[in-house]
Amino acid sequence: MKLALISDIHSNLPALEAVLAEIRRLGIARILNAGDNVGYNAFPNETLSVLAREGVESIRGNHDIASITGDFSRLNPTAASAEEGTCKGLSVQSSDFLMALREYQELDIEGLRFAVHHGAPFDPWEYVRDYFVSGLHLEKANAEVLVLGHTHWPYALRLDKGFVVNPGSAGQPRDGDWRASFATMEIVRGKVMEAVIRRVEYDVKRTMGANRKAGLPEILADSHH
Prior knowledge:
By secondary structure, the chain is α/β, with parallel strands linked by helices. Helix content is about 35%, strand content about 25%. It has 8 helices and 10 strands. The model has no long low-confidence stretch (mean pLDDT about 95).
């Protein structure tokens, strides 16, 4: 069985469309999404509509929570400015979609205990960098495979007690590679054989142009190249 893992789309519809096209090309049907679906970019409603239509198994991230509550106090000024615009522009359907999402998921996949969290297990605001990852995170999540987001830096780590994977950011990578990031995982007879970080190019100019047209902070238009 093959899975795709995505996270931190941040309203970047062109990036999401490119990632989904590549996932389809790879013949993968099931997609787990570690949250932060909105924020930063100009396509919140379109992004959520695609996630709903494609049946992507999604959770909320901290930006999703902020857009629902209207509390931007824990976001940096650029993020808060973009999130305020997102909040005002969300359709009823989009708000309902975000409200219905859980803040984490626990799943049984091929006999393996999966957990999907945005930040650290049970704290969507806490960053878990690759150099902080340990078996304690798997224990906290009661999982053999833990999928995380939030950092926008991808990694796939095999530990004694299981796997911890961060697919990076589909919509706003921060590791110096502008391409949309996601991960794939292959499971055979109840064992993870591999987890691979993948990158795909997308229509950056479309995202940048839409961000400028929407009046988002200029840094968000320039951050995609």
